[in-house]
Amino acid sequence: ETGVTQTPRHLVMGMTNKKSLKCEQHLGHNAMYWYKQSAKKPLELMFVYNFKEQTENNSVPSRFSPECPNSSHLFLHLHTLQPEDSALYLCASSQDEQWGGRLFFGSGTQLSVL
Amino acid sequence: AQKVTQAQTEISVVEKEDVTLDCVYETRDTTYYLFWYKQPPSGELVFLIRRNSFDEQNEISGRYSWNFQKSTSSFNFTITASQVVDSAVYFCALSEAGSARQLTFGSGTQLTVLP
Strands B109-114, B10-14: parallel, antiparallel or unpaired by DSSP? Predict the structure, then answer.
């Protein structure tokens, strides 16, 4: 079983849809992250949760709504997205936010907004 | 502000060739961490190495080696005797305070190793 699991792997949605991305980590970590990866651009940090508390919202539009019910699960709720939101959304975890170490990533959800 | 530049967007080599991926960084801090991650076609980024700013010793791990030079603000990555399985996007990253909130990634280098 992989350390960080993301579902679904692929998602196509219309601009008026509501969908959610799910991330689960089996590593006993306390920090979880959402990153956005667009073509030809560096990874962009979106949200950080440390011990279930949101510690970073990197100027992300409100059409993206994160939820962290416990240290093992992280959701990204999507609504009224725009075509430019099409990207690979990656979830990651680490021991805690001040890790000084490494991030463990999931395989991502490839999102297409039509 | 911190910045990571990977000037090589795409590199293509033939199997068994050596290849070096360049990484140049900018930071005002004296304490920082540098990273390399590999992103294979499956999508997940895989951690390769972490270096702190006080450790300029080069590192070798199998066919991988890293050259950290503070004088030129570079942290280059060399793959010796490349293999097809090395084909991936490689990201260099910098964190000034060891916090993920301050982790800045470069734009990545797509490495293709041809058989």
Answer: parallel
Among A2, A98, A103, whose Cβ lies nearest the Cβ of B47?
A: A103
**Would you say A52 and B105 are in contact if contact means Cβ atoms under 8 Å apart?**
no
Residues B79 and B64: beta-carbon distance below 8 Å: yes
d(C-alpha A36, C-alpha A56), whole Å:
14
Q: Do B42 and A107 touch (CB under 8 A)?
A: yes
What mean pLDDT comes out for the span A62-91? Answer: 95
Q: In this predicted structure, what is the pLDDT of residue A57?
A: 82
* Number of alpha carbons in the 13 Å side-chain half-sphere of residue B69: 9
To test the contact with chain B by mutation, choose from A21, A54, A104, A105 the residue with the greatest count of B C-beta atoms within 10 A, namely A105
Pair of tokens at residue B44: 């997940």
Which pLDDT value is given to residue B77? Answer: 98
Measured in angstroms, the CA of B23 and the nearest CA of chain A are apart by 13
